[in-house]
Write a structure and sequence with these properties.
The protein is an alpha+beta fold and 736 residues long. The chain folds into five domains: 206 residues, Biosynthetic peptidoglycan transglycosylase-like (Penicillin binding protein transpeptidase fold, Orthogonal Bundle), CATH 1.10.3810; 264 residues, DD-peptidase/beta-lactamase superfamily (Beta-lactamase); 31 residues, no CATH class; 57 residues, no CATH class; 87 residues, Immunoglobulins (Immunoglobulin-like). Helix content is 29%, strand content 20%. It is built from 22 helices and 29 strands. β12 and β13 form a beta hairpin. α4 crosses α6, α13 runs antiparallel to α21 and α14 packs across α20. The longest helix has 18 residues. The structure holds zinc ion (ZN). The site of zinc ion has 8 residues, from loops.
């Protein structure tokens, strides 16, 4: 009969139907960095029995229910004792088993009267009928009140003992076990002496588990606020989840402290808020995520997340434009670009500083964030250009390319800090468009064919171009000096100061500004954001060396003025990098030798016998660049005028093979086959430089011929002698 009744007991769930749990987030090393409130505003961490230290389980059973594993939910002896006590008017305490105590928590029972007590027993039978002892014990340890809004052993261990419940020792376990019976009275409070009754109760429990050491009864709580190192990021995870994130707790903490200290110093300038991200680029794992300077500061609207907000990134897109220009052979780092006033139909871009530098090296133009050279490059890059680049990189662009026009290079399309970090991580790592990772060791599933957005050579050249020259003593840890490639950005009207930096494998992006978007002239990328960026690299110990150049990047001595292959008249030379076979490296035609009659100041032909005629080297700038220098306040020496026809076309080299306009048939099969290139050069010329379709082919001695093996299709062949005079032919090569 009893057996029949036992099997008739209806089923129930182990936990309340609406039970909710804390979100628990760990860092990449397993350390808990965030515990959130459950839906009912309690801290309650679901923890399996195996992850609770045995001393906690042992002490709980010894204190609450010694016979837990041998009764069917209700202990008849203690019920009897409690009943007798009640009849005699003497409280003998409890009589509740651990199962009954859990039943009271689980079903919200009022047990201070007989009917409540009776239901508690029936519910205890119900739990015992449908769940194992271990399940009930686990549910109790996950639900018991431990004071304040802390429920369950795991949350209590953090809050009161500052450790995980797997690491509790006996003293801590014994102290915690006391709490559920009188949570309000026994809850640890700062500055309040513990009740004598609590200490004596602990002593009794210690005696019971055969540890009668009076030293252990006197436990000093290690109260600690619940971990909350990543409040902005934590909001992105559903309540109750437990995840191991890519975040590095120590990097996150150092970054947070660095940002706080930095902003204290900037307070008088009215700069009060910042967001940052730190990425390990090869894995795209996010090591640090700071949404605002202080989540809990309402004055800066700290709960807003600056990592997700989209704003104008100023010049932060420029490196990718230069990268395209490098890969398309339009420039190399030492190419001269025109920093000149430009006028387009409905757009008048100006440099931030409203001045013009004149001709400027590509790497300087990028580093100094000159707007006009960038706008010119926007007009020159082929294919999808910068817009196409951003699109392929997975960027959200709300409008067609025509909407942004050339000003895209100046940041007219808004970006979030997260998107900027993704772009720069691609630049620092493999060049692929890959999303950032927030979960440790999670690899993004992307089966599509992956091609780098920029070549390894272009990526490396960009990093080299952006290396910060100023040797900052902050960055020198002992003998190790790191190199940081930095690009800064300032939004129009000084609303946002940005800096993105790469050092070795690490990427840091910094934003400073205000969530109410008010303007502040102190918000400049170079002076406000870059110093914080450098400090972050230093304090988080993330500075590394720039890796060696990849295959395909070569270096050579180039003319320091023109950035071209030096001729015999170039006086200053400079080591420079370029991409083999792609960079537009041609002989310097800027420096040329002329003959000047010192008496008349007139330029004369080279064959003059007049003793007053002396050779001089002069810079032959194009009219465009001469105008630029003049506008920039650096006029160049004019070439002396001449009464004669100097360096007439008859003096220029003459291509004798191939012949202009001819069609050449060349055998496909033999290795020797190719287009023979030969020329007559003027007297005094020693070297000739051959080009085809805009690319450098070879240099030969005057009179020597060159066989171009790769010739095919329409070929524009260009020849220049060492004085800078040139000629060209156009032929058609058919392969048989
Ligand atoms: Zn030169």
């Amino acid at each position: 009969m009893l057996l029949f009744l036992w099997y008739m007991i209806p089923a129930c769930s182990l936990y309340k139907e609406d039970a909710s749990w804390s979100t628990v987030l760990r860092d990449r090393h397993g350390e808990i960095i965030y515990v959130g409130l459950a839906k009912d505003d309690r801290y309650r961490i679901k923890t399996p029995l195996q992850k609770i230290h045995p001393s906690m389980i042992q002490s709980t059973l010894a204190y609450e229910d010694e016979h837990f594993f041998s009764h069917p939910g209700v202990n008849p002896l203690s019920v009897l004792r409690a009943l007798v006590g009640q009849l005699q008017g003497v409280s003998r305490g409890g009589g509740s088993t651990l199962t009954m105590q859990y039943a009271r928590l689980r079903f919200d029972l009022k047990t201070n009267h007989m009917s409540g007590k009776l239901e508690q027993m029936l519910r205890a039978f119900q739990l015992e009928r449908h769940f194992t002892k271990e399940q009930i014990l686990e549910a109790y340890l996950n639900s018991a009140p431990y004071g304040g809004n802390v429920e369950g052993v795991a949350a209590a261990s953090y809050r009161w003992c500052d450790k995980e419940c797997a690491n509790l020792n006996t003293q801590e376990s014994v102290a915690l076990v006391m709490l559920p019976q009188r949570p309000a009275a026994r809850m640890p409070r700062v500055g309040r002496e513990e009740l004598a009754s609590t200490i004596s109760a602990r002593q009794r429990l210690l005696d019971k588990i055969n540890l009668s050491d009076s030293m252990l009864a006197d436990y000093a709580w290690q109260t600690q606020r619940m971990p909350n190192a990543i409040p902005h990021l934590a909001r992105q995870f559903p309540a109750g989840e437990e995840r191991q994130l890519s975040i590095d707790a120590s990097v996150q903490q150092r970054a947070q402290e660095t940002v706080r200290d930095y902003l204290i110093r900037q307070k008088e300038l009215g700069v009060t808020n910042a967001s940052i991200m730190i990425i390990d680029s090869p894995t795209r794992e996010v090591l640090s995520y700071i949404g605002s300077a202080d989540f809990f500061d309402d004055q800066i609207e700290g709960q807003n997340d600056g990592v997700k907000a989209r704003r104008s990134p100023g010049s932060l897109y420029k490196p990718f434009l230069y990268g395209l220009a490098l890969d398309q052979g339009l420039i190399h780092p030492n190419s001269l670009l025109a920093d000149a006033p430009l006028h387009f139909r409905d757009y008048n871009p100006e440099n931030n500083e409203r001045d013009f530098l004149g001709p400027v090296k590509a790497s300087d133009a990028l580093k100094r964030s000159r707007n006009l050279p960038a706008i010119r490059l926007m007009n020159q890059v082929q294919g999808g250009g910068l817009y196409g680049y951003l699109q392929t990189a997975g960027f959200r662009l709300d409008h067609p390319a025509s909407h942004y026009g050339l000003s895209l290079a100046l940041g007219s399309a808004p970006a979030s800090l997260e998107e900027v970090a993704q772009l720069y991580s691609s630049l620092a790592a493999d060049g692929l468009a890959a999303p950032l990772q927030y979960i440790h060791h999670e690899v993004a599933s992307n089966n599509s064919v992956k091609l780098p957005l920029l070549s390894a050579a272009a990526r490396w050249l960009l990093r080299d171009m952006l290396v910060d020259d100023q040797r900052d003593p902050l960055l020198n840890h002992g003998s190790r000096i790191g190199e940081i490639s930095i690009k800064t950005g300032t939004s129009q009207g000084y609303h946002d100061a940005w800096a993105a930096g790469i050092s070795g494998r690490y990427v840091i992006v910094v934003w400073l500004g205000n969530f109410d978007n008010h303007s502040n002239p102190a918000l400049k990328g170079r002076t406000m954001a870059a110093p914080l960026l450098k400090q972050l690299f230093a304090t988080c110990h993330l500075t590394q060396k720039l890796p060696p150049p990849p295959a395909g990047v070569s270096h050579a001595e180039l003319c320091a003025v023109s950035g071209m292959i030096p001729c015999q008249h170039c006086q200053h030379q400079q080591q420079a990098w370029f991409i083999e076979g792609i960079s537009p490296i041609v002989p310097c035609d800027l420096h040329r030798q002329i003959w000047v009659n010192q008496r008349t100041g007139k330029r004369v032909a080279s064959n003059s016998r007049d003793p007053d005629v002396k050779a001089e080297v002069r810079e032959f700038w194009s009219q465009e660049f001469l105008d630029l220098f003049r506008q920039a306040g650096m006029p160049r020496r004019a070439i002396p005028p001449s009464n004669e026809v100097i360096l007439a076309q008859a003096d220029a080299p003459h291509i004798t093979s191939p012949m202009n306009g001819n069609v050449y048939e060349i055998e496909q099969s033999t290795r020797e086959s190719g287009l023979i290139c030969k020329a007559d050069a003027a007297p005094g010329v020693t070297r000739l430089f051959w080009f085809a379709n805009g690319k450098f082919l070879a240099s030969t001695a005057a009179g020597e011929s060159y066989i171009w093996h790769e010739a095919e299709g329409v070929c524009q062949i260009h020849l220049m002698d060492d004085r800078g005079l040139s000629t060209s032919v156009k032929v058609n090569v058919e392969r048989k």
